[in-house]
Amino acid sequence: MVQYLRARLDASFAALSDATRRGVLEQLGRSDASITDLAEKFHMTLTGMKKHGGVLEQSGLVTTEKLGRVRTCKLGPRRLEEETSWLERYRQLWDARFDGLDQVVEELKRKERVDGRKKRE
Amino acid sequence: MKNRTTVERKSERELVVTRTFNGPARIVFEAWTKPELFKQWWVPKSMDMFLRSCEMDVRVGGRYRLVFGHDASNPAEFFGRYIEVTPHSRLVWTNEEGGDGGPVTTLTFEEKGGKTLLVLHELYPSKKALDAAGTGAADVMKETFEQLDELLVALGASVGR
């Protein structure tokens, strides 16, 4: 549990270790913006800004929403009160774990189907 | 659509986590009891953690040990022993890394229509032990998130508004 929280913090601080990403957070503090807007403002390629957006999103500091062909970024919902709800954090840990377990289950099901076919052949 | 994970504090001493998986119980059970499979999912991808080793002797009285950490001189270990093992339906184990305060975990696999409902039940020896597990984690969070909040304020980002 505690290790999981430390990992979350590492992700937050890693996201903040870059000057462009800090600039993006400041910008989003003023208003929401699309990846295209942000790329222009920071004189970057779209691909470059998408990468920064991805890092910020993973850390939970930023959320993005796609409407049509435009992806809009806004500051994430995290607040201290939410972070201190350890039960919710605990749920998120299990939820993240279980997403991985879903993948393992799918892979095992696929293998069983393949093996089943081989046996019949 | 992904299935929902719920966590509930059932009583002063109990925590219950539930989740449904789109596969039969024998497969979900296998993923919990074979180290090479367990290693593939126990540490979420978003976490910068490394499961250095994972040993599981899945039989009554058998022991398990998980060792985390990139650095061999500073490992974090989780260990205990299996109290009940019923293939494809039920596992019960102890969590002994924290001494006497550790919970007993009961995991049940309930198959219905090709899907499996997983229920993970943790029973702590006392209310105090469960509170300590929760607030210990909350304290670490509070302290470090306060630092993060300060940093964000310093950066001029009005987070959460």
Features of the shown structure:
heterodimer, A: about 120 residues, mainly alpha, Arc Repressor Mutant, subunit A, 2 domains, three-stranded antiparallel β-sheet, 6 helices, about 70% helix, about 10% strand, B: about 160 residues, alpha+beta, Alpha-D-Glucose-1,6-Bisphosphate, Chain A, domain 4, eight-stranded antiparallel β-sheet, about 30% helix
Task: Report what the structure shows.
The complex is a heterodimer of chains A (121) and B (161). With 121 residues, chain A is mostly helical. Chain A has two domains: 2-75, Arc Repressor Mutant, subunit A; 80-120. Helix content of chain A is 72%, strand content 12%. Chain A contains six helices and three strands; from the N terminus they run ααβααββαα. A three-stranded antiparallel beta sheet of chain A has the order 1-3-2. In chain A, α1 (2-16) runs antiparallel to α4 (46-59). The longest helix of chain A has 35 residues, at 86-120. Chain A is elongated and about 60 Å long. Mean pLDDT of chain A is 84; it is low at 79-84. With 161 residues, chain B is α+β, with helices and mostly antiparallel strands. Chain B has two domains: 6-125, Alpha-D-Glucose-1,6-Bisphosphate, Chain A, domain 4, CATH 3.30.530; 127-156. Chain B is built from three helices and eight strands. Chain B has an eight-stranded antiparallel beta sheet with strand order 1-2-8-7-6-5-4-3, with helices on one face. Chain B is globular. Chain B starts with 5 loop residues before the first strand and ends in a 6-residue tail after the last helix. At the A-B interface, α1, α2 and α6 of A face β1, β2, α1, α2 and α3 of B.
